[in-house]
Design goal:
With 355 residues, this protein is of the alpha+beta class. It has helices at 5-23, 25-28, 37-47, 53-61, 82-93, 99-102, 168-180, 208-217, 240-254, 258-267, 282-288, 292-298, 315-326, 334-354; strands at residues 31-33, 62-65, 77-79, 107-109, 123-129, 134-139, 150-155, 160-165, 184-187, 190-194. It has a six-stranded mixed sheet, with helices on both faces. The longest helix has 21 residues, at 334-354. 37% of the residues are buried.
């Protein structure tokens, strides 16, 4: 028989404080003293739901954190106090009429664990991202296959909702397991992510909701909590120095900055063979940037003009689509149309040389 959640919270508190003291002591200074039992009872009365014991223990231990820019302690989320949580909760009750518009697009993972809604009084925010209105919270009104007190994501951008733990204690144990295993990415922004999960080869951090999505899709939820292990498919980003060079190169190509492209490739010619996110070659990027000057320079590298990116598009296709999309709401000037035509001619000429 598993231990009651409140005894687990006590044990988790010791682990939490020990890890932060050893690895991120400045974050401890932002944590606020716990709430009183009376404050929790008043909170419970206002929201109209009983507070699970482990959530009560949590708020009596940590009543949110003093908000400092870019100082996260929970994979990009700031901890909310009872008063912060209540303020956010009140706001979401004012937009309940949006359920009719968004309910059909909402999905639950696991299926039927979370009710299909844009908002409901039963979702109690306990942590919030720095970007507007995305939360981790306690679900006190779960779906037919859910559990009262489960931890979920919800908010403005969260049509897909995921169970991260059937209780707050389960969720905190997942987080601490990963911290203690050395998988937290700690930088000047705080604990911003998990080193298994990157958005792309540049090493940009994946939003926590996307991490939840990947774990559920890879069936790493055992009915109580998510599990992260070495069997999980992950992107291994390029080393920071290489990533920055690659980013500069493709940004310049996309913006018709031939001088920067030439400067970088004259010094690091091997970068023409390195693919950035989405699998676009430097030909794709120069083509999307409508840059005949850069294409003229790239001829010397004998690149494959039929190479396809992750969406199956060639440089020629990318050129045409990018031009069409950019001028959806306005007509291109004569000079812009001429540059586009010159770009197409360069690509076609490069293709004929390969045949």
């Amino acid at each position: 028989m598993s231990e009651p959640p409140h005894t687990r919270i006590t044990m988790l508190r010791q682990r939490w404080e020990r890890w932060f003291q050893d690895n991120f002591p400045s974050a401890l200074e932002t944590l606020q003293a716990g709430a009183t039992s009376q404050e929790i009872e008043e909170f419970s009365r206002e929201i109209g739901f009983a507070i699970p014991e482990d959530v009560r223990e949590w708020f009596m231990w940590i009543n949110g954190q003093v908000h400092q820019p870019h100082l996260s302690v929970l994979f990009g989320f700031d901890l909310l106090s009872l008063s912060d949580s209540l303020q956010e909760w009140r706001f979401w009750q004012t937009v309940s009429d949006m359920n009719a518009e968004f309910a059909e697009s909402c999905r639950s993972f696991p299926e039927d664990a979370i009710i299909p809604a844009y908002t409901t009084p039963g979702w109690i925010p306990i942590a919030k991202t720095s970007r507007p209105a995305d939360y981790l919270g306690i679900d006190l009104n779960p779906g037919p296959e859910g559990t009262v007190g489960q931890v979920i994501n919800f908010g403005r951008n969260e049509e897909k909702k995921f169970v991260a733990g059937v209780s707050l204690a389960d969720f905190l144990e997942l987080i601490l397991d990963e911290y203690e295993a050395g998988h937290a990415v700690v930088n000047e922004y705080g604990i911003c992510g998990h080193d298994y999960f990157y958005l792309n080869l540049y090493g940009e951090i994946l939003h926590f909701s996307c991490i939840l999505s990947q774990l559920h899709e890879q069936q790493k939820f055992d009915g109580r909590r998510l599990y992260i292990d070495d069997s999980i498919e992950r992107i291994k980003p390029y080393p920071p120095e290489l990533a920055e060079r690659l980013r500069r190169l493709h940004f310049a190509a996309l913006n018709d900055d031939a001088e920067t492209v030439i400067e970088i490739l004259d010094r690091y010619p091997e970068l023409v063979q390195v693919l950035p996110p989405e699998g676009n070659t430097i030909l794709h990027t120069a083509a999307m940037g409508q840059s005949p000057r850069i294409l003229d320079y790239l001829v010397r590298f004998n690149l494959d003009t039929n190479a396809r990116n992750d969406e199956g598009k060639t440089p020629l296709t990318s050129c045409e689509e990018a031009f069409r999309d950019f001028y959806v709401f306005e007509e291109p000037s004569k000079q812009e149309m001429k540059q586009h035509q010159e770009t197409l001619k360069r690509l076609q000429k490069m293709s004929s040389r390969m045949e």
